[in-house]
């Protein structure tokens, strides 16, 4: 593998790295129990994580208040085994030999927590499916 550890590495990418990719990264880190190295980034990062995403994840007992949107780097893509994009289109660099998935998810930007919950729940289901495809048993379903 391309990274220094024997862990699989997954990178979540969306435009602002403030909602979908942050929730997905938090779920993967939580449900994998640390078995997967998790990164997230945005092609045009926002100033802060979406407060509705923070609130929606807090309801699940997952605290993402300390997370900050990060800019997508070529290195982050190179160091990841799986790259999951969420509506960033052509701004995501493509490298041969990587597993790519594009998750079509509603953008939680500017929405209240009630509107973010169904997006959060869909992300959780997709993360469980991703773990299964990576042969990683979730620590808690």
Query: Compute the gyration radius: what is it?
Result: 14 Å
Biggest pleated sheet: 4 strands, parallel
Widest β-sheet, arrangement of strands = 2-1-3-4
**Number of contiguous helices:** 4
Helix content: 25-40%
Number of DSSP-assigned strands: 4
- Mean of pLDDT: 91
Shape: globular
Q: What structural class should be given to the helix and strand makeup?
A: alpha/beta
Which regions contain 5 or more consecutive residues with pLDDT less than 50? none
Query: What percent strand?
Result: 15-25%
Give a description of the structure.
By secondary structure, this protein is of the alpha/beta class. 33% of the residues lie in helices and 16% in strands. The protein contains four helices and four strands. The protein has a four-stranded parallel sheet, with helices on one face. Helix 1 packs across helix 4. The longest helix has 21 residues. It starts with 7 loop residues before the first strand and ends in an 8-residue tail after the last helix. The mean pLDDT is 91.
